[in-house]
UniProtKB/TrEMBL annotation, chain A:
Protein name: DUF4249 domain-containing protein
InterPro entries assigned: DUF4249 (IPR025345)
Superkingdom field: Bacteria
Species name: Aquimarina muelleri
Length: 280, 792
């Protein structure tokens, strides 16, 4: 047996970081397509008669987007049961509005848009949402033990599949935060959707402080929309390490005149609870 | 029926060859290392006068039968002094020989001293061998010698970049590599998401990588075989060795249980916690450890037993809200038995498992998944004559797959316990393989493997209308899951689906001279397990799934032709190979497929195919102060996932697309220079085409957010070219010679000119300027490191 037990410690010098740089790349450009943001959201407890549909076209990736609004389209939504038509009026700023929409839960509707002599069609069903049981704040939940987060708590109904979509937007903040969830592993139980900001110097982000206000829109959505928004959320930051291969984002708007020229975006009909929360 | 044919073929061969064996005698034995009794694999046992020879097997055994007579025998092995014997063969002879290391330096195996003419004539092509010594000389990131980082410097072998798991061989996927550690299958070869491999280089004896022409004794994966043998332990004297490095430390002890009879070996390795602090922010833990333990005992001349174990784990924890543990466990009992001096057998009983555990506190759940298998293997080497050797055997593996279990981690969690349905399967392989020296110039290797895979019963199996789990919504042009119409229940012993495949293998070598040969090979292989992964490189969370009612086994045909030349008494060697392979039933995933915790994976996959072809070139300098190699590969690796009908687009509109690991050009250089007894230097240079990726073709605004659009052909863009240089210097103090304690210092610099190689390019919107940006992530910049290795 040897008697050497001494172990010599070795000092090492390393920089050992992963780093990110903004780089120039030449990206290809596909022909622009129509983008349909037809979100007919019926706020619970209101009549839901005022609705807006926004039309634009897709642009080159490194271009400012605001320039490509679409005017001159004809937009209407039909109740598939009684054929009531709701005509959306062109506001000449890319928005098309109506004030006489009649939402009916679990009713299917058809969207028809005629633009550049091509007809775009989409079908969707108005999906209900459960009530929010409570909105709380905490620090110990979420990714960071010390940062404040807001918790939206609700009870998932039993005996059915449910899909949820929630949009948080901080007052004064530029970009909303989108989350989706389903009840696959929580059916019939209490569920929580949570928004927390972590401090990040790279993007000038701070944690929530008392008196910060967060607007909340909580939607019940269809399975189709859930699948769509899952890919959408995934691809907002496409191509990161361990990322999935990005895919074309196809919504539910088809082009009946020229099927290859389908539209981006989605025709969604959801019931929504809108509220806001002020951190204490 | 097929088994009967095989058996009668075997009998016919046996009887035929026994007829010739009159007036001939067999010389057989074990070749081992003089200092430790460690058996040596792949030693050339040559009879130069008659140009005959044989190579030791995985347990150091050789056997050759020659006519009565006097012979000169030469035994040569990489890094060892040649041993010469004069033999007067008048009876069957047992000759165990011990070789002395050519250099007394620390754990160092100096590459080829003598030419290996057998390799020119051996039909086995597309193979690369590395010894632990070679691997330790290759400079790697953070100075930690690493098997996988070393093999990716060989032609035809790449990975998808720094920090990616596994490796890709000849345009094959990571899950298509059969990785064997002492004959046990390893399911995840990477620590820390691919920064290190799971093999402790101190415990390794021999590594072989088969890229093509794979012999019939291997089966179950279609791309390559990485066959790793660990050391058995020194049965002469106790010794320890280890290293202190920038990122991990190692310690290994070995010694006799009974002198010259039995030995043990225990090795451990661990990285330091908080290793990746700069990679994320604050409170987190990331480390790995592994343990290797071995026992061997020589019962008598004809019987040896080996017990070995491996246990490795990776641990990540971020802020107490995220905890992740995963790793492999292997236990293996082997028994070598010599039926006669011509018939060597090995029986292996192997248990191996891969475990993955995850706890997400903020979601309130715990997740476990894994794969377990019990493996019985019986392999025989039958040395029938000096021109003919038969290898045959049987291998049965029983699998249990746990695709995942979700549990609430506390009482106030809303998560309900959900157990994904366990899956069971049995894989049987029977093979016979011959090495046949037809003439002095022509050598053949041919064999056949019969594989049979039974997907066994499980609790619940979804049944779909017309067996179709996936609907193509023609109106919306998207794939959608179909709800099952029924659920079938099975007992664990009920077969749900059976596959049987015949896998012929053949190789031929024709030597024009002792220095030049051409070789050709064909192999067909079947793979019954699939790793479900739709990320650019696999992650430890990816789940293995067996073939069955809805997933067919992958079937490969590979053809390779090569030209081999040894120049100037093998001071230099040149190997060039062309290969083509096609794989049936390679699955890919529909848009938006969610592979995690998915009980009905058949609803998310489409069946496709893959192909790869290329040219490899390897120029080596094998002797002298300067040694090394230059490798160049040009290749293409593609995949096609067509729609099931002409109305369906499949993936990428049914057109071929690059696999995520397609690299057109790949140049690697590795060189080492021994300046004197004290200093040795080594360098690597790597230059590769960037990994395939996707660039957006536009953007649109929805929900107040700009999202990039991906409308172009899949994987048609590339990350910028990857290149870097690494250097290292090894200092062996002169005073080593006079003392027991031997130490060496390894100083290394990875990525010498601090090239920021892209690991990925992300497309996102800057939250300040509101401008879209392309953001490159690079992982390792310049990294100097020091490692101290010791031995006593």
């Amino acid at each position: 047996m040897k008697t050497y037990i001494t172990i010599i410690f070795i000092g090492i010098s390393i920089f050992f970081t992963s780093c990110t740089d903004v780089i120039d790349v030449n990206v290809p450009t596909a022909d622009p397509r129509l983008v349909i943001e037809a979100s007919l959201d019926w706020e619970k407890g209101t009549s839901g008669n005022e609705q807006t549909i926004t039309l634009s076209t897709s642009t080159k990736y490194f271009e400012k987007i605001e320039s490509n609004i679409v005017t001159g389209a004809s937009v209407k939504v039909t109740n598939d049961n009684d054929d009531t038509e709701f005509i959306f009026i062109d506001q000449n700023n890319g928005k098309y509005t109506t004030t006489n929409f009649i939402p009916v839960l679990n009713q299917s509707y058809t969207l028809e848009i005629i633009y550049n002599n091509e007809t775009y069609i989409a079908k969707e069903t108005m999906t209900p949402v459960v009530d929010i049981a409570a909105i709380t704040q905490s620090t110990e939940d979420g990714d960071d033990d010390e940062a404040l987060e807001v918790n939206v708590i609700f009870n998932d109904p039993k005996n059915e599949e449910n899909f949820y979509f929630i949009k948080f937007r901080e007052k004064g903040g530029l970009l909303p935060e989108l989350y989706n969830d389903n009840d696959e592993f929580t059916n019939g139980n209490q569920m929580t959707l949570r928004y927390e900001k972590e401090e990040d110097d790279d993007i000038n982000q701070e944690e929530f402080k008392p008196n910060d206000v967060v607007d909340i829109s909580f939607h019940g959505v269809s399975k189709g929309y859930y699948d769509y928004i899952s890919i959408f959320i995934d691809q907002i930051d496409a191509g990161g390490p361990f990322g999935t291969t990005p895919v074309p984002l196809r919504g539910n708007c088809t082009n009946s005149s020229n099927p290859k020229n389908y539209a981006f975006g989605y025709f969604r009909l959801t019931q929504v609870i809108k509220t806001s929360y002020t951190f204490q | 029926m097929k088994k009967h044919i095989l058996f009668s073929l075997l009998l016919a061969l046996l009887s035929q060859f026994s007829m010739y064996s009159q007036e001939k005698f067999t010389i057989s034995g074990i070749i081992s290392e003089e200092s430790s009794n460690e058996t040596l694999i792949g030693v050339n046992v040559l009879f130069p006068e008659i140009s005959k020879g044989v190579v030791t097997n995985e347990y150091g055994f050789y056997s050759i039968t020659l006519p009565q007579g006097k012979y000169k025998l030469q035994i040569s092995y990489l890094g060892f002094k040649d041993n010469f014997q004069n033999i007067n063969l008048t009876e069957n002879k047992k000759l165990n020989i011990q070789l002395m290391e050519a250099s007394e330096m620390l754990d160092e195996v100096v590459v080829t001293e003598k030419l290996e003419k057998l390799n020119i004539k051996n039909p086995q092509m597309s193979i690369n061998r590395l010894t632990a010594g070679t691997i330790k000389q290759i400079p790697v990131v953070l100075g930690e010698a690493d098997i996988i980082k070393s093999i990716i410097l060989l032609p035809g072998v790449t990975n998808t970049g720094e920090g990616s798991s596994g490796f890709n061989v000849r345009g094959g996927a990571v899950d298509q590599n059969l990785i064997l550690l002492d004959e046990a299958t390893i399911f995840n070869s990477s620590h820390l998401f691919g920064f290190f491999s799971v093999f402790n280089p101190d415990a390794i004896k021999d590594i072989k990588l088969y890229k093509g022409g794979i012999p019939a004794r291997y089966g179950g994966r279609v791309s390559s075989v990485l066959d790793i043998y660990q050391k058995e332990g020194n049965s002469k004297k106790f010794g320890m060795n280890g290293g202190l490095g920038a990122i991990a430390s190692r310690l290994l002890a070995e010694g006799p249980i009974k002198k010259n009879k039995g030995a043990f070996l225990v090795g451990g390795r661990t990285s330091y916690a908080h290793l990746f602090l700069p990679l994320f922010d604050n409170d987190n833990i990331a480390y790995f450890y592994d343990l290797n333990a071995k026992l061997n005992y020589k019962i008598n001349d004809n019987n040896n037993i080996y017990l070995s174990g491996y246990f490795g784990r990776d641990v990540f924890a971020i802020n107490k809200v995220f905890e992740n543990i995963y790793g492999n466990t292997v236990i293996n009992l082997r028994w070598n038995h010599l039926f006669s001096d011509k018939l060597f057998s090995n029986l292996s009983l192997i248990y191996s498992d891969y475990f993955y555990g995850l706890e997400l506190d903020f979601v309130g759940f715990k997740w476990d998944s894994g794969i377990r298998n019990f493996n019985i293997k019986y392999d025989l080497n039958h040395y029938l004559g000096n021109n003919f050797q038969l290898n045959y055997g049987i291998n049965n593996i029983y699998f249990k797959f746990n695709p995942g279990e979700i549990r609430p981690n506390s009482t106030d969690s809303g998560i309900k316990r959900e157990k994904l349905i366990d899956k069971y399967a049995n894989e049987l392989g029977v093979y016979i393989d011959s090495e046949h020296k037809v003439s002095n110039n022509l050598t053949l290797q041919y064999g056949i493997r019969l594989s049979n895979f039974i997907r066994l019963g499980q609790n619940e199996l979804n049944v779909y209308q017309d067996d179709n789990p996936l609907l193509f919504n023609e109106e919306l042009q998207i794939y959608e899951a179909i709800e099952p119409v029924d659920i079938q229940k099975f007992k664990k012993s009920d077969p749900i689906k059976t596959f049987t495949n015949i896998e012929p293998r053949a190789a031929i070598a024709y030597a024009f001279s002792d220095n030049t040969s051409i070789k050709a090979s064909y192999n067909r292989m079947a793979q019954y397990l699939h790793l479900l992964s739709n990320t650019s490189s696999p992650t430890p969370l990816d789940v293995w799934t067996p073939s069955g009612k809805y997933i067919k086994p992958q079937l490969l045909n590979q053809y390779a032709v090569g030209y081999f030349k040894s120049i100037n008494e093998n001071t230099y060697s040149l190997e060039t190979e062309v290969f083509y392979k096609d794989i049936k039933n390679r699955i890919d995933y529909i848009d938006g497929a969610d592979l995690i915790a998915n009980n009905a994976i058949e609803q998310d996959i489409l069946n496709g195919k893959a192909r790869a072809y290329g040219l490899e070139f390897l120029f080596r300098k094998n002797e002298g102060k300067f040694k090394g190699w230059l490798a160049y590969t040009i290749s293409k690796s593609e995949q096609q996932t067509p729609g099931r009908t002409s109305q369906e687009p499949g993936i990428n509109n049914s057109k071929w697309y690059n696999t995520p690991y397609d690299k057109t050009h790949d140049i690697s250089f590795n060189g080492s220079y021994k300046w004197n007894e004290k200093w040795k230097f080594a360098a690597n240079f790597v230059l590769q085409t960037g990994q395939p990726t996707n660039y957006p073709t536009g953007q649109f605004n929805y929900q107040g957010i700009s999202v990039p659009l991906f409308d172009a052909s899949r994987n048609s863009k590339r990350l910028p070219s990857y290149h870097r240089i690494d250097i290292s210097a090894t200092l062996t103090p002169r005073k080593n010679k006079t003392r027991k304690w031997q130490g060496e210092w390894v100083f290394s610099i990875y990525n010498l000119y601090n090239r920021k190689n892209a690991a990925s390019i992300a497309f996102t919107r800057n939250q300040d300027t509101f401008v879209n940006e392309a953001i490159k992530t690079s992982i390792f910049g310049i990294i100097p490191a020091v490692t101290y290795n010791f031995k006593f």
